[in-house]
Amino acid sequence: MQEPLLGAEVPDYDTFPEKPPPLPGDRARVGTLQNKRVFLATFAAVLGNFSFGYALVYTSPVIPALEHSLDPDLHLTKSQASWFGSVFTLGAAAGGLSAMILNDLLGRKLSIMFSAVPSAAGYALMAGAHGLWMLLLGRTLTGFAGGLTAACIPVYVSEIAPPGVRGALGATPQLMAVFGSLSLYALGLLLPWRWLAVAGEAPVLVMILLLSFMPNSPRFLLSRGRDEEALRALAWLRGTDADVHWEFEQIQDNVRRQSSRVSWAEARAPHVCRPIAVALLMRLLQQLTGITPILVYLQSIFDSTAVLLPPKDDAAIVGAVRLLSVLIAALTMDLAGRKVLLFVSAAIMFAANLTLGLYIHFGPRPLSPNSTAGLESESWGDLAQPLAAPAGYLTLVPLLATMLFIMGYAMGWGPITWLLMSEVLPLRARGVASGLCVLASWLTAFVLTKSFLPVVSTFGLQVPFFFFAAICLVSLVFTGCCVPETKGRSLEQIESFFRTGRRSFLR
């Protein structure tokens, strides 16, 4: 008897054999790599994540610029800067809520395409802003688009990808989001803030153009009774030389068994609520590590600590490290497995957050209160009366620790939480549950981002980093106890595993 996934102890349990029968998609993996169709469809979809990453960190160079704006209608006060930084997450939460309906109503592909409307409108508002309300509305609309794509794109990618490369392709949404952030940091060194918004329109338009020629998810098409269209879509994605009938039959059988939507009564069943709980808690823990406030206020954090390099350069360097780390995760996810990378990621983030907290508490302070993007100088330890001058290479610690944190996040808890969300959620609840996860995630991000400045003002900058470090320890425990290893398993196999209700789920 072959060993099941996660080591079930019941002798007759063989839902996940170590070497399951090869799918036609696996047998034709070489052909898939040659025709690149599934990769093209993935690239078209994840352009929405590029725009999301670009919009998320838009405030990093823009807040300092608007803080010194000579236009009284655009000059940001401390409170206004806080809202400008955090309102994006409220829009993202609303986008996640909308995805609960649109993901199953329009389908994955059309929902992604629909996100282009609020995204393009939001960038246009910020580019032509003549008052704070236009900035906030534009930021909210781009956040809405980001929340919608965050819920729809991972589901679309996981449903079109063969199991053998689903880990690598599942990392591409996070990879493109990181690349979008890095592009913003790089362009922020060259362009004024209005032109940064104009540049954000380009990937949105390219996404719409490419997705118009891509197929919808075969699983979604089958759930709507469009069997012939689903077969054509699967055949196109796997390549003309691939025999897709075995894989199509497996998907079709799974969809037929789940032809109706899950009811509230059924949602309490273990095989439904357990994967939803895992996905939801992972999304909450991901945000509680502090990634969103750190990215939103990255340049301001560097402004407000003793650093050797200019804050703008520091932010761009961190963005480059984040991109490299996600590339590493994409290449190793299908080799090392999800859980190993999650353990490594949480351990690295813990060390980085603890180091940042200790440096801020005990380390040198800047000679003068630099621009803090609306952060009161007193909140950083009475910078009006500096305690010490920057002490040579010791002031590289904030940059190195932040680079370490971003590297750890991007290697595991960044891309893998999105991938696992799309892998473990049951088909009947996938559209609604993914929207619920994104909604909870971005509401948490809003609370963190909005409260970051008041907490710093009251307790000091080191306190949030100590809190984030504690959350990383919780993430280590959660990974060991509750997260299943899904490497190399089809979505149907993963769902079948949760249906067993075995206690091995917790191993």
Structural descriptors:
72% helix; 507 residues; mainly alpha; disordered C terminus
Anisotropy-based shape: globular
In terms of structural class, how would the helical and strand content be classed?
mainly alpha
In whole angstroms, the N-to-C terminal distance is 20 Å
For the secondary structure, the number of strands is 0
Please outline the major beta sheet. none
Gyration radius (Cα, Å) is 23 Å
Order of helices and strands: HHHHHHHHHHHHHHHHHHHHHHHHHH
Q: How confident overall, as mean pLDDT?
A: 76
Spans of at least 5 consecutive residues whose pLDDT stays below 50 are 1-34, 367-390, 502-507
Describe the structure.
It is a single chain. By secondary structure, this protein is mainly alpha-helical. It contains 26 helices and no strands. Helix 5 (about 80-105) packs parallel to helix 8 (about 130-160). The relative contact order is 0.16. Residues about 1-35, about 365-390 and about 500-505 have low confidence and may be disordered.
